[in-house]
Amino acid sequence: MYKTVTLILFTFFCALSLPAWSQSKSTNPSTFPEGENTSKVVKAYPNPATTKIYFEIQRNNDKVYEIIVYNFLGKKVDHLKNLANRAQLPLDNYYSGLYIFQLREKDGTLVESGKFNVVK
């Protein structure tokens, strides 16, 4: 008896909250308030990469960045410093697999992280 009543009440409250879910914020980046824009700051290409990968800063704002590359186990593999617009990373010493990169400001503040795949 209690299980049936609980199930009915649960269904009723879910039905009441459904209109609120449909009126939630849009995921269109142009509707976000300033500071919540979801566009990427850095673009890594080609992905997957074989011999080299390029990192291109999309929004520079006259800042100097650095990119730190980690393997999938979390070990630091590379560190590119003083990036302004574009950097090239040769993959000669990289094994096939997934790598994580972090874009940081010169003071160490994390701006963005991403991943790329090396295929050899």
TrEMBL record:
InterPro entries: Secre_tail (IPR026444). Residues 1-22 form the signal peptide. Pfam families: Por_Secre_tail. Keywords: Signal. The keyword Signal applies. The keyword Nucleotide-binding does not apply. Residues 45-110 form the Secretion system C-terminal sorting domain. This is T9SS type A sorting domain-containing protein.
